[in-house]
Amino acid sequence: MNKIALLYAPKGGSVEKAAKKLEKVCQHDIDVIEIAGFDVRNLMNYENFILGCSTVGAENWEDAEADNEWDALFHNIEEKKISLKDKIVAIFGLGNQVLYPDHFVDAMMYLKNECKAAGAKVIGEWPTDGYDFTDSESIEGDHFVGLPLDEDNEPNKTEERIRPWLEKITNEMK
Predict the structure, then answer these.
(1) Burial tier of 111 (Cβ tally within 10 Å: 0-12, 13-18, 19+)
(2) Separation CA 70–CA 75 (nearest Å)
(3) What is the span of the domain harbouring residue 65?
(4) For the segment 112-141, what is each residue's pLDDT rounded down to a tens digit?
């Protein structure tokens, strides 16, 4: 399998902590990269990606300020006409299903839509079973579009969810 780029934002919180756990557990060659200042031309050096984000409702992405790193990354990809065709992307999202049960890991769907629009194949759906939330924009059918993690309320479940998810996605990567 080719090297994996694990891109995450924001820096310094639960997303970064989860990215480090994924790196530790992953059995494959992986580069963990915080996206602030990341040169999108470097995307061409990888075939496989894992993207990590925090919960943000879609309305916040559309009204994003200049410091929204994901929004800036995808605008940069579009501006530079970079295609993610033939690239494989899996997504994990951090959220708080107790404080924000109506928007649990919403941002994963934003990342999925942006990646698909750029030509990527998105993998890594995960069952909704075992979570306690009201609603999420990141659900298709009876699965999340990526791996939801709740470091605030269920940090003890993070690694038990990461291991099988990583095995699943790495079996589908090139």
Answers:
(1) buried
(2) 9
(3) 4-172
(4) 999 999 999 999 999 999 999 999 999 999
Decide if 125 contacts 144 (C-beta within 8 A): yes
Q: Give 153-167 pLDDT, tens digit per residue.
A: 999 999 999 999 999
Overall pTM surpassing 0.90 (yes/no): yes
Q: How many domains does the chain have?
A: 1
Tokens matching residue 27: 């059995």
In this structure, are residues 24 and 58 in contact, taking their beta carbons and an 8 Å threshold? no
Which CATH number fits the domain that encloses residue 135?
3.40.50.360
**Closest of 57, 156, 64 to residue 108, by C-alpha:** 57
**110: nearest Cα among 150, 54, 50:** 54
* Type of residue numbered 15: V
Calpha distance 62→119 (Å, rounded)? 20
Name the helix (H) or strand (E) containing 17.
helix 14-25
Residue 54's DSSP bridge partners are 94
Q: Phi and psi for 121 in degrees, rounded to 5?
A: -95, 125
Cβ-proximal residues to 15 (8 Å cutoff; 6+ apart), any chain: 8, 9, 52, 53, 54, 94
Rounded to an integer, the average pLDDT of 13-39 is 93
